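Side project, low priority. Logging it here so it doesn't get lost.
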Amino acid sequence: MSDAPPFVEIRDLRVDFPNATGVTHAVRGVSFSLGKEKLGIVGESGSGKSVTGRALMRLLPPSARVSAAALRVGDVDILRASERQMRDLRGGKIGLILQDPKFSLNPVMTAGDQIAEALRAHTRLGRREAREKALSLLESVKIRDPRRVLDAYPHELSGGMGQRVMIAMMLAPNPALLIADEPTSALDATVQAEILRLIEELVDSRGMALMLISHDLPLVSRFCDRVAVMYAGQVMEELRASDLHRATHGYTRGLLECLPSLSERRDRLPVLRRDPSWLEPRA
């Protein structure tokens, strides 16, 4: 096992959102580290998965109150970094793939211009060089007709092609960490499998770390190395993805038991029973 320090370190991360009735505690004491591996973060909507990923890139609204004992990517202290450092980090060391390319891509710019813009923001490439590199990136994400897509607008692309463009744009500066926030939720099942295989191939071939945020426990168990299970802003359990079916925490067991089965007949899926003790402060 490597003695190298983790690329991502999060200790006691807390994110609060003040509102008209008080404060919403979105993330409450989350801690984990990440090296060159695939980490899955799973849990219900509202469990704090996406907020944790955005806190790592400092992409939360100005009203958010963020604190942590440690929040670090490489040698950058996220809480103390300047805006210039964060600009270099976002898209440079960290790439973010969002859920739906229809809302992630700029509708008035061609796919090629958007990839080239990402390249030129982090390199000294000229326009022509950036365009050629954009074409090469579209080829690397296995788009069938990359020259046509290079000059196409987002509305001219299918969901799967749009997500491939988004992946190419995030890979342009060759990041060390890729955060994929439900990257296949807007796609049909066949395209989902293609996109996940593509992400896996690119992460492995480039030696990147991956943080995959998902609701899909079976997908994460097959795709990732480790899994962190979140509930109400806390990590309930962290374990190897291959051992997810052996999870011991009541919340993780409840999620697994709510899944339909093709091999076992069930008259009715059980309802998750929540234990108030899950919300108690964790050591």
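Brief comment: Residues 24 and 171 are 34 Å apart (CA to CA).
Revisit when time allows.
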